[in-house]
Amino acid sequence: NAEILALKPYVxxxxxxxxxxxxxxxxxxxxxxxxxxxxxARIEKWRAAWSSKETAAYLDFYGPEFTTEGMNRKAFVNxxxxxxxxxxxxxxxxxxxxxxxxxxxDDQLMLAExxxxxxxxxYKLDSRKQQFWKRDGNGEWKIFREESR
Length: 149
Description:
Strand content: 35-45%
Oligomer: single chain
Order of helices and strands: HHHEEHEEEE
Strand order of the largest sheet: 2-1-6-5-4-3
């Protein structure tokens, strides 16, 4: 495909996000900034709840159909309640945050991709995380899939 080959010099494998869509819809930059700030506030609340060991509040960000690497929501909740209860402290910081609306989803799906810096009294990990968010029936954003690499 000639168009894809023309983009090759600008694409860094594993670093450059590429979205394919049948159509483009131009957005008002001021509205986009407002939407971004609102969504970033949601992510910050998720991060803060985890860091402050407010496990119930943290887990409330995950929707009923949530899955992650071999776990459904119930298994994930059991795992996080057990692990977080054993921690003296948890510190989560985020950097390099990118947000993507899913094309054709009528603003109901969002991908948040970031570097996560996790520290606790007995564990330390820097990883790249993808969170897939979806609006629930009340219009509230919930995580329905999470992947780390």
